[in-house]
């Protein structure tokens, strides 16, 4: 993997694995019905709560990118290294938010089938997206990014 300061060599559109897992999980649920996940008002309330947390994290991250005049686009190069806002807690707050939304939608669908795909989603994001973003940030920001990585975890 070559290090590129101009832009990451991202291979996968980040929301795609989540969407595919939700769609595949929904389809499997209709075919097999073997992994029911809760049901009723409490399950739906928790699902909506998780979606709300994920959306709030997404909006907070977008606001942080906006304040720093840098891009959220995983195919474009960063113009500034964001280390404040949600980036104080996670180097990938949008992807963490996506996990909340993913789990919330699975609860609303009342099926565990999408969650079966979680390890595959993780691997696709880690190796198809995040490693390329990290290589770009390392090439562009060097020691500053190394110090940031030492302080802040990749996920939570």
Characterization of the model:
This protein has one domain. 65% of the residues lie in helices and 0% in strands. The chain is built from 5 helices and no strands. It has helices spanning 15-32, 40-67, 93-109, 113-116, 118-151. The longest helix is centred in the C-terminal third of the chain and has 34 residues, at 118-151. The protein is elongated.
CA distance, first residue to last residue: 25 Å
H/I helix tally:
5
The strand count comes to 0
Taking Cα atoms only, what radius of gyration do you get, to the nearest Å?
A: 17 Å
Structural class by helix and strand composition: mainly alpha
- Tell me the helix content: 55-70%
Shape: elongated
Strand content: under 5%
User: Can you tell me the number of structural domains?
Assistant: 1
Mean pLDDT: 94
Q: List the secondary-structure elements in sequence, H or E.
A: HHHHH
Q: Low-confidence stretches at least 5 residues in length (pLDDT < 50)?
A: none
- Main sheet? none
Secondary-structure topology with pairs:
Layout: H1 15-32, H2 40-67, H3 93-109, H4 113-116, H5 118-151
Helix pairs in contact: 1-3, 2-3
Condensed summary:
By secondary structure, the protein is mainly alpha-helical. The protein contains five helices and no strands.
């Amino acid at each position: 993997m070559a290090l590129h300061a101009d832009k990451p060599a991202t291979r996968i559109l980040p929301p795609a694995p989540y969407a595919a897992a939700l769609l595949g999980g929904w389809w499997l649920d209709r075919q097999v019905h073997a992994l029911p996940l809760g049901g009723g008002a409490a399950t739906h309330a928790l699902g909506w709560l998780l979606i709300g947390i994920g959306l709030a994290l997404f909006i907070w991250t977008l606001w942080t990118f906006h304040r720093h005049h840098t891009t959220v686009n995983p195919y474009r190069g960063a113009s500034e290294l964001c280390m404040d806002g949600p980036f104080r807690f996670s180097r990938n707050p949008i992807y963490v938010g996506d996990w909340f939304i993913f789990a919330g939608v699975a609860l609303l669908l009342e099926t565990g089938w999408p969650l079966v795909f979680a390890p595959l989603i993780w691997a696709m994001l880690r190796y198809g997206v995040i490693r390329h973003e990290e290589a770009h940030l390392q090439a562009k920001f060097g020691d500053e990014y190394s110090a940031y990585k030492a302080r802040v975890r990749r996920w939570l």
